[in-house]
Specification:
EC 1.6.5.-, 463 residues, 14 helices, FAD/NAD(P)-binding domain, FAD/NAD-bd_sf, NAD, oxidoreductase activity, FAD
């Protein structure tokens, strides 16, 4: 009996999950006959549908419904929860650690493969801004989204109960750095949520909250076009959101955001969404990279000059064959990532069967962005929409793209219920420290204070 072809998928995000899902279908006979096997190595047992993170932060969608459990979806794949640290593609081995290896203390283990799909995704690209690592929060994971929601409501609680105007102002100032999708949508949804929540505080008004968007370039949401970007700025400023263009964050030490225009903003909230970079693993693969650190690929989604290696998504520089200018690569967004996985899975299956490969070619269809409840902008197939129609298109598009019927139904049900009932305004920050209450209860009681009088003589009056 011949050995099965071992396909290793590194990463369980957009590209990793969708590629493995489509490989299950493309290689259904091979998997049944055990002439092929698929292993997915990922740090988390779920895929996060990131376009829904702003709505999860605002409470419109339950956090568990913006993630897709890999073991349920990839039922014909082997799922390994762990982290790949390096690759030796010449020997077809990956070095990784798992939760079990950490418990066993055995160190890293090696996993052999025949075909490699490298899809580790991206991480936040940070700059050497003083205080950034100590005080800022990102917005790429569901944990960050829920943590930010809890934090915003907690700041409103602090502002409501303090008598110190400096503490109150800092608690009610929220600074978002980055005018792309993540920054604008997160700010817009959270501002919507906080404005609604303020009605339940006897001494807070929506205008007491200060929201600041800091963008280094001269525009926001470049994907929706210049005209719609200008509309988005007008919409945000009409809601008393301070949009600073051509401005950078220079420091956030001591809980003071210092901007390049000289503005100093005492704040307890700095959200960093400025940009992303390929995951650190890419540098340890030994595969060819471009000047931005992405893996150099061909239009067939093979790694350039390397056999039996494939890549797509944020960490891959894939030529855009539909662009008129040579050397143009596909934008690192979900639209390309999901469509690339279809061609990637078909090409891997074709390669195993000795069939010809095809190029990835997809003209950019356009973009949609939410600016809060019932507000949005869109530029799709040359048509420009704003307000409610754009917001509706945003929801319809992403509902169609979120994986599995189960998730589609749950998200639709939550949207329906949120339209019938009031928003939830509960902060569950204690979830981040679930053992705190028990540790307090289990701690030994404090030692009793010495009742002796000041002169140390029990029962005798001092002096």
């Amino acid at each position: 009996m011949t050995e099965p072809v071992r396909i290793l998928v590194v990463g369980g995000g957009y590209v990793g999950m969708y590629t493995a899902l489509r490989l299950q279908r493309q290689l259904k006979a091979e998997l049944r006959d055990r002439t092929a096997e698929i292993t997915v190595v990922t740090p988390e047992p779920y895929m996060t549908y990131q376009p829904f993170l702003p709505e999860a932060a605002a409470g419109s969608i339950s956090p568990r419904h913006v993630v897709v459990p890999l073991r349920r979806v990839l039922d014909r794949c082997r799922i390994v929860i762990g982290e790949v640290h390096s690759l030796d593609h010449a020997k077809r081995t990956a070095t990784l650690s798992t939760l079990a290896t950490e418990e066993e203390g055995t160190g890293h283990v090696r996993l052999a493969y025949d075909e490699l799909v490298i899809a580790p995704g991206s991480v936040s690209r940070t700059l050497p801004v003083p205080g950034l690592a100590d005080h800022a929060i990102g917005f790429k994971t569901v944990e960050e989204a829920i943590g930010l929601r809890n934090h915003v409501i907690e700041q409103m609680d602090i502002a409501s109960s303090t008598r110190d105007p400096a503490i109150r102002d800092a608690a009610l100032t929220f600074v978002f750095v980055g005018g792309g999708y993540a920054g604008v949508e997160a700010l817009a949804e959270l501002e919507d949520m906080a404005r609604y929540t303020a009605r339940y505080y006897h001494n807070l008004k929506p205008e007491d909250l200060r929201w600041v968007l800091v963008e280094a370039t001269d525009r926001i949401l470049p994907e929706v076009g210049e005209e719609m970007g200008r509309y988005a700025i007008r919409e945000l400023r009409g809601r008393n959101i301070d949009v600073r263009l051509g401005t950078r964050l220079e420091s956030c030490e001591n809980r003071v955001a210092v901007l390049s225009d000289g503005t100093r903003l005492p704040t307890r909230t700095v959200v960093w969404t400025a940009s992303v970079r390929p995951a650190p693993l890419v540098a340890a693969t030994g595969l060819p990279r471009d000047e931005r650190g992405r893996i150099v690929c061909t239009a067939r989604l093979t790694v350039d000059g390397v056999d039996h290696a494939w890549a797509a998504g944020d960490a891959a520089a894939v030529p855009d064959v539909t662009a008129g200018e040579p050397g143009t690569t596909c934008a690192p967004n979900a639209q390309h990532a999901v469509r690339q996985t279809k061609v990637l899975a078909e090409n891997i299956a074709a390669s195993l069967r000795g069939q010809p490969l095809k190029d990835y070619a997809h003209s950019y269809a356009g973009s949609v962005a939410s600016l809060g409840l019932h507000k949005g902008v869109a530029h799709v197939y040359g048509r420009k929409l704003k307000g409610y129609p754009a917001w509706f298109m945003h929801r319809a598009y992403h509902l169609s793209r979120v994986p599995t019927f189960n998730r589609k139904a749950r998200v639709l049900a939550e949207w329906t219920l949120s339209g019938l009932f009031k928003r939830e305004i509960v902060s569950l920050g204690s979830l981040e420290h679930p053992r705190a209450e028990f540790e307090l209860a289990a701690a030994p009681p404090p030692a009793p204070k010495d009742p002796s009088p000041p002169d140390g003589t029990p029962g005798e009056p001092a002096g």
